């Protein structure tokens, strides 16, 4: 947005960013104004997404993951919100696109919402909802019909099953499949999935996840998979980004992060994954389970008040993302494990590229 | 309620359960009579000229101030000039319902427009609409219209426009609240993600969801307008005699009231029944909203 927005090619100082990615999010900052108070939902987050790649965004409530998803699709409400940074898709800066250009762009990037029931207008027919994007995009009627049929078939439904029905006549899982069909009908190459299974029964979750995976493979879709459920994210993601209070604290290949998390917060999230073993106790974290107030974040590292490894340095200097020995990037002065080579470097040395 | 069973979701496709319809709530006796009364009133108003045997409203067809009798013209008796009160009520209904209907269309149209824009764009538009609605709500409608009609001369058109204008704020507030309550719903975001314009979102996504609320609120507000219009006609500022009007008929009979109290029976009964029926229908429609919300 601002004139001094970093050009995408200058991303060399953050080694995990790639110049050939389809979606590039650079220094994204989103803050909401409520009267005098300013709430920083997202602070200086950068990442990218290659074609056909799946990136998991994880973090607890209020970590900014949903806001990032909405910001990518330019869905953050205009009043009461400030956006900073740049989002480019296939070298188009989304903020500079005209309305008509953005409407065309929406064919390529779509979204699936958390609550499938509330993401459908209760007073409209399901068939119309699935075809709505095509109608908005001015697709001719026969082409629209063909595409809707194809999208419904992709999610295991058919026109005969949904014709004439309204959203409340479907279960949560069916609604989520219809929501996927609505996104697919436009033929996107990227979909932001905002907690797509969080409101579904566990048995239905697996079905919807598998469906998403199949469609992703068949259509070579890039996905941003937002979830607080690390077990689900691990199954679907190539790479994972961990967010805490609007900041990205760790990003890397899913395998690396799940095998050896570098950030204490990631460790804590992983420890919280339920394991069917009654003898296992979840280690109680220090500093309480609740995040600090986001209206007045703590100085330095935002996680330090809950972090067992925090010291004076963490209170003074906000850690920046830097490469870890395991392969991922983490923003921590005292990353795990203790015996890595990466953790001896001082924050002052961070400016040198990896 | 076997139709309320959860639909099974499985990878292998079973046929979906039969569609579950949103049923309309059962009518109580009072509601059934209210609907019937309103239908008859509207039909009577439209076809008042063509009802066989019914005399013209200004035709002095019999003795003056006769009590009700069992004939079409004498159903409510005759007034001080010997005219059929029943005929005058039906012709008065035509005038009243036209005025109230047009006034409601005016306030509904402008109120929806202003309220939806205020709720959707907030900011300066919302402040302007709030200020307008609150200011107009503070004005006593009868006094304002009296003052206006005194200044410009009695006119049905002026009265209709003024009645409509004074209710714009009421509808604007209802519409604004409805838009704000929907603004953060995911289906609005979804529509925007599909590329829908603001106009499309307002008309296709938000407006249909405002309709049940409006349907429940319009009848009682119309009942209020009927009372206001009746009062103005009673005071001689509305429909000018000798044209028949409900309020005017009550005013005409006040002189003779001590000797012929039955003169005001017809118009009073009609006004009371119409207002009662409209409010009852409003209650029924809001009951339908509650029921829908429970079913959804």
UniProtKB/TrEMBL annotation, chain A:
SUPFAM superfamilies the UniProt entry points to: P-loop containing nucleoside triphosphate hydrolases
Organism: Devosia enhydra
Cited PROSITE patterns: ABC_TRANSPORTER_1, ABC_TRANSPORTER_2
Name the record gives this protein: Peptide/nickel transport system ATP-binding protein
Main subcellular location of this protein, as a coarse class: membrane
Classification via Pfam families: ABC_tran (PF00005), oligo_HPY (PF08352)
Domain of life, per lineage: Bacteria
Residue ranges of every copy of the ABC transporter domain listed in the record: 23-270
Keyword Nucleotide-binding: yes
NCBIfam families associated with the record: oligo_HPY (TIGR01727)
This protein's record includes keyword Nucleotide-binding: yes
Entry's Gene Ontology cellular component terms: plasma membrane
GO biological process, one term: transmembrane transport
GO terms assigned for molecular function: ATP binding; ATP hydrolysis activity
Keywords carried by this UniProt record: ATP-binding, Nucleotide-binding, Transport
Entry similarity comment: Belongs to the ABC transporter superfamily.
From TrEMBL, chain B:
Pfam families according to UniProt: BPD_transp_1
Keyword check for Membrane: yes
Record-level GO cellular component terms: plasma membrane
Protein localization: Cell membrane
TM annotation in the entry: 29-48, 97-121, 141-166, 214-240, 260-285
InterPro entries, per the entry: BP-dependent_transpt_permease, MetI-like, MetI-like_sf
Domain (ABC transmembrane type-1) ranges: 93-282
Xref: Gene3D superfamilies: MetI-like
Protein topology in the membrane: Multi-pass membrane protein
Alphabetized UniProt keyword annotations: Cell membrane, Membrane, Peptide transport, Protein transport, Transmembrane, Transmembrane helix, Transport
GO BP annotation list: peptide transport; protein transport; transmembrane transport
Family listed: Belongs to the binding-protein-dependent transport system permease family.
Official protein name in the record: Peptide/nickel transport system permease protein
């Amino acid at each position: 947005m601002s004139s001094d927005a970093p050009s995408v090619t200058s991303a060399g100082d953050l080694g995990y960013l790639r110049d050939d990615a389809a979606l590039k999010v650079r220094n994204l900052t989103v803050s909401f104004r409520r009267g005098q108070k300013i709430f920083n939902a997202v602070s200086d987050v950068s990442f990218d997404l290659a074609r056909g790649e799946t990136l998991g965004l994880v973090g607890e409530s209020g970590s900014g993951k949903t806001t990032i998803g909405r910001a990518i699709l330019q869905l953050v409400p205009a009043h009461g919100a400030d956006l900073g940074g740049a989002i480019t898709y296939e070298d188009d800066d989304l903020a500079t696109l005209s309305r008509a250009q953005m409407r065309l762009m929406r064919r390529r990037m779509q979204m699936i919402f958390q609550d499938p029931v509330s993401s459908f207008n209760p007073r409209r027919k399901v068939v119309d909802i699935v075809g709505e994007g095509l109608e908005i995009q001015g697709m001719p009627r026969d082409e629209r019909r063909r595409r809707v049929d194809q999208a419904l078939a992709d999610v295991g439904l058919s026109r005969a099953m949904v014709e004439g029905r309204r959203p409340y006549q479907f279960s949560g899982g069916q609604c989520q499949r219809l929501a996927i069909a609505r996104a697919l009908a436009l033929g996107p190459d990227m979909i932001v999935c905002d907690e797509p299974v969080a409101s579904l029964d566990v048995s239905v979750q697996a079905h919807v996840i598998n469906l998403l995976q199949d469609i992703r493979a068949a259509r070579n879709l890039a996905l941003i998979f937002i979830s607080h459920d690390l077990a689900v994210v691990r199954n679907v993601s190539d790479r994972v980004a961990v967010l805490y209070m609007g900041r990205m604290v760790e990003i890397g290949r899913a395998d690396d992060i799940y095998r050896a998390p570098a950030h204490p917060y990631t460790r804590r999230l992983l420890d919280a994954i339920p394991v069917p073993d009654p003898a296992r106790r979840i280690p109680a974290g220090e500093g309480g389970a609740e995040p600090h107030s986001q209206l007045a974040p703590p100085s330095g590292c935002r996680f330090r008040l809950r972090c067992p490894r925090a010291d004076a340095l963490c209170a003074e200097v906000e850690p920046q993302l830097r490469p870890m020995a395991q392969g991922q990037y983490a923003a921590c002065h005292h990353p795990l494990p203790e015996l890595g080579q990466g953790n001896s470097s001082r924050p002052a040395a961070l400016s040198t590229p990896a | 309620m076997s139709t309320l069973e959860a639909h099974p979701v499985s990878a292998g496709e079973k046929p979906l359960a039969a569609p579950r319809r949103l049923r309309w709530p059962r009518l109580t006796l009072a509601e059934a009579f209210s609907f019937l009364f309103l239908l008859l009133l509207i039909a009577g108003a439209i076809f008042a000229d063509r009802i066989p045997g019914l005399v013209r409203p200004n035709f002095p067809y019999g003795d003056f101030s006769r009590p009700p009798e069992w004939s079409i013209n004498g159903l409510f008796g005759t007034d001080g000039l010997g005219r059929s009160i029943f005929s005058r009520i039906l012709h008065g209904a035509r005038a009243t319902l036209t005025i109230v209907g047009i006034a409601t269309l005016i306030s509904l149209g402008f109120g929806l427009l202003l309220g939806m824009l205020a709720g959707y764009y907030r900011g300066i538009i919302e402040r302007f609409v709030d200020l307008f609605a609150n200011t107009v709500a503070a004005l006593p409608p009868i006094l304002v219209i009296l003052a206006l009609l005194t200044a410009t001369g009695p006119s049905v058109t002026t009265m209709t426009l003024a009645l409509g204008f004074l209710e714009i704020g009421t509808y604007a507030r209802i519409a604004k609240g409805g838009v704000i309550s929907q603004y953060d719903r995911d289906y609005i975001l979804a529509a925007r993600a599909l590329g829908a314009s603001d106009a499309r979102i307002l008309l296709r996504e938000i407006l249909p969801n405002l309709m049940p609320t409006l349907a429940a609120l319009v009848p009682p507000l119309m009942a209020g307008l009927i009372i206001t219009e009746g009062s103005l006609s009673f005071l001689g500022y509305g429909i000018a005699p000798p044209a028949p009007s409900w309020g005017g008929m009550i005013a005409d009979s006040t002189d003779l009231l001590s000797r012929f109290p039955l003169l005001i029976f017809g118009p009073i009964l009609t006004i009371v029944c119409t207002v009662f029926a409209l409010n009852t229908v409003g209650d029924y429609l809001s009951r339908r909203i509650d029921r829908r919300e429970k079913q959804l």
